[in-house]
Amino acid sequence: MASKYSNSAPIKTVIVLVQENRSFDHMVGWMKTLNPDINGITGSESNPMPTGGPIFFGSESAYVDPDPGHSIQDVFEQVFGVEWAKELDAQKMRPNMQGFAKNAERKMKGMSSTVMNGFRPESLPVYKELVAEFAVCDRWFASVPGSTQPNRLFVHSATSHGLTSNDKELLIKGLPQKTIFESLEEAGCTFGIYYQYPPPTLFYRNLRKLKYIIRNFHQFDLTFKRHCEQGKLPNYVVIEQRYFDLKLLPGNDDHPSHDVFEGQKFIKEIYQALRSSPQWKEMLFIITYDEHGGFFDHVPTPVKGVPSPDGITGPEPYNFQFNRLGVRVPTIFISPWIEKGTVLHGPSGPYPTSEFEHSSIPATIKKMFNLREFLTKRDEWAGTFETIINRKSPRTDCPEILPEPVKLREAEAKDEAKLSDFQEELVQLAAVLCGDHMKDVFPRKLVESMTVSGGADYVKGAFGKFLEECEKARQNGADESNICLPGWDCNSDNNPTAPKFKSFASKLCSCIGFHIHTHRDGGTTAHNHRPPPPTTPSRAPPRPRQIHSATIIGHFDLNNHVRMASSPATMTTAAALRCNWRSSVVVVVVGSISFPNCG
User: Fold this and answer.
1) Which UniProt keywords apply (predicted)?
2) Terminus-to-terminus CA distance in the chain, angstroms?
3) pTM
4) Distance between CA 470 and CA 210 in Å, rounded?
């Protein structure tokens, strides 16, 4: 894991942890009572209720259940105070931050109180200590005014490639954009992803390459503390949480309805491992949140002067232009090179409208590690935070042990609850990694009745299968620059595809749409058909071949092929098929069949 990178700057290792679904005011707004320089809560902040009266922001947050709304349309109402409509132009509207209570109350009676309350500093003792000892940024926004996935994508690539919510085709193929991981590799720097479940970083297509799976992904529980102790952390460290909330293994990502007590425990564990590392004096640890989760924040969201990262427009009905930011989220910086009680406000550039947002991470990494180029127009625009390193020498008085967290949830985890949207996406990602995306239960039927515990079991097994396939491929000498998935040729660039068929007839055609090759011994093998990509845009599609006289009786296997057991014979126009997508079956087809693109 040794890095070829070297420079005279004090920071050589950056650690990034992205927690889930909490706004700045909700988590750390009341820290203003401890440090008046923080743009936090004064107690005068309010929202109108549907009945007309105001509800003031309080300090009574504890355990939050259920999860407030945070889709694009929810955030629109929260920010602008009116419900989303296609004819409304956000660029011409004022972000008054007056729609949180109304949006929450419409979702569920009484939820306005949930979103209009924050935590007292003593309820979050780990954050209280970190904010006092190091630095907090009080003007850091989510990259997208929407949900988890697009915002997480911005953290490491400064774009979501047009994604505003779950998209099964993009999920299967993987998001194609270049990431900060590849930029670091090009510069001779190292990176590592320490995961506890299938890491969301595998939504990036390039990170599915065999070389990265083998060398750059590490199981957190087995390797993180050891790498800290041995001084072997890479230049760029990403830590992934437990995203499933189980009775025996609670979620520690802070996503409602998970207990923030578990998140505080997790951050304490990470900090203390870093603090005891021989690399401590070269570290910067960044804690942020993907998005606000529907909770109130009083700072207006920037809606003008924000560039689209790549010109890609989001899907209907919103057609989002990626030209405004999301709601403000907590961001904490930890390093012995930071003075106590530092508050980082807005950036001074590089553009007059620049802000701190998730793209600030790749933008700053580029500057710190002298990387060659920006990823998109967004990280080129985003403010950078290297000035947070504001000392000439590292401190020696940084706390070695953080306070014990306060337990806020009395009940057990609801592991029989329905999956959240993000958990569904993780299950679907796991299905792609283990090959289950080829089944017709993907994507919706796979998750529609799945519980949190069932989802956790599924992703654990699926990811384990994926890692086994990768190890087999490595041992067999596969090209490490390619992607290896079950049923794939690891030495080809073919992409997995989702089944597009729903009716019995289309399933029938899909089951029998295979190539037939004649061997020298007179036998035949029929292969599951995967049409090749056109070699040029002008290539004419091949004419379908008609087989009018054949009887096909063979063994159908989803993984690859059918071994034929008979020779051609006269057929009548009829067909019979039993197609079980969970196992190999016997297929009997009689009729006139069209085989497109058989060559």
Assistant:
1) Hydrolase
2) 47
3) 0.83
4) 6
